Amino acid sequence: MDSTHIILIVMDKNASFILKLVLVSICANNWIISQLTAGASNTGRSLKTIRCNETSLLLGMQLCGEYFKDQMKPIDQKNWCNLSYFIWEYHHFSTCTENFTVSEGCFWPNPLVQSYIIDIHKHYFSNCSLDQVIWEDPPDDTLAILILIPVILTILMIALVVWCSKRNDIFL
């Protein structure tokens, strides 16, 4: 056998492997698509377009909000800014609004839902902003030190570079 026959045999082995790989990928792709199509047709909502029912959505937001308000009643008002006191209640409220929005065929986030959530935040969390920090300059002595240290270090580094460049025997 000469080198030409060996290359053809190797090419035939690689070609059959690639052909098998292509056939397997086509079969797998068809199977996955058929499973996805079957799953979508089982839901009954595969090709239907659900319209957002804004009236029902607002009523649902009221229900979620009322439940949240009932859950917040036992929590002392001074603890409204501490999330650890009401994290579960807020999570439930958020999940309720999201699930209800999706069930009504609306997208999430939704401007109507967002405005309702903002109203809830204004009612419960409007006084939770942090106090403003008033920035002041440091004392003059501290400021002078903070300015002089980098200036002196820069001058020293320049002097070191000039000194080392004049002394070529160090690097040879």
From TrEMBL:
The residues that cross the membrane are 143-164
Query: GO MF terms on file?
Result: coreceptor activity
Q: Which GO terms describe its cellular component?
A: cell surface; plasma membrane; receptor complex
Keyword Secreted belongs to the record: no
Swiss-Prot/TrEMBL keywords: Cell membrane, Disulfide bond, Glycoprotein, Membrane, Receptor, Signal, Transmembrane, Transmembrane helix, Transport
Q: Where in the cell is it found?
A: Cell membrane
Q: Which domain of life is it from?
A: Eukaryota
UniProt keyword annotation of Glycoprotein present: yes
Which Pfam family, any one, appears in the UniProt record?
RAMP
What membrane topology was assigned to this protein in its record? Single-pass type I membrane protein
Listed InterPro entries = RAMP (IPR006985), RAMP_sf (IPR038126)
Residue ranges annotated as coiled coil are none
BP term (GO), one: G protein-coupled receptor signaling pathway
Family, similarity comment: Belongs to the RAMP family.
PANTHER family registered for this protein in UniProt? RECEPTOR ACTIVITY MODIFYING PROTEIN RAMP, RECEPTOR ACTIVITY-MODIFYING PROTEIN 3
What is the name attached to this protein's record?
Receptor activity-modifying protein 3
Source organism (scientific name): Erpetoichthys calabaricus (Rope fish)
